Amino acid sequence: MEREKFSSRLGFILISAGCAIGLGNVWRFPYIVGKYGGAAFVLIYLLFLVVLGLPIVVMEFSVGRASRKSAALSFDVLEPKGSKWHLGKGIAIAGNYILMMFYTTVGGWMILYFFKTIKGDFTGMSAEAVAGEFSGMLGNPGLMMVFMVITVLICFGVCAMGLQKGVERITKAMMLCLLCLMVVLAVHSVLLEGGSEGLKFYLMPDFGKMVETGIGEAVFAALGQSFFTLSIGIGALAIFGSYIGKEQRLTGEAVNVTILDTLVAFMAGLIIFPACSAYNIEPKSGPSLIFITLPNVFNHMVGGRLWGTLFFLFMSFAAFSTVIAVFQNIISFATDLTGCTIKKAVLVNIVLIIILSIPCVLGFNLWSGFMPLGPESTVLDLEDFVLSNNLLPIGSMVYLVFCTSRYGWGFKNFLAEANEGKGLKFPAWARIYVSYILPLIVLLIFIQGYWSKFAG
Question: DSSP secondary structure string, 61-106?
Answer without folding.
Answer: HHHHHHHTS-TTTHHHHHSPTT--GGGGHHHHHHHHHHHHHHHHHH
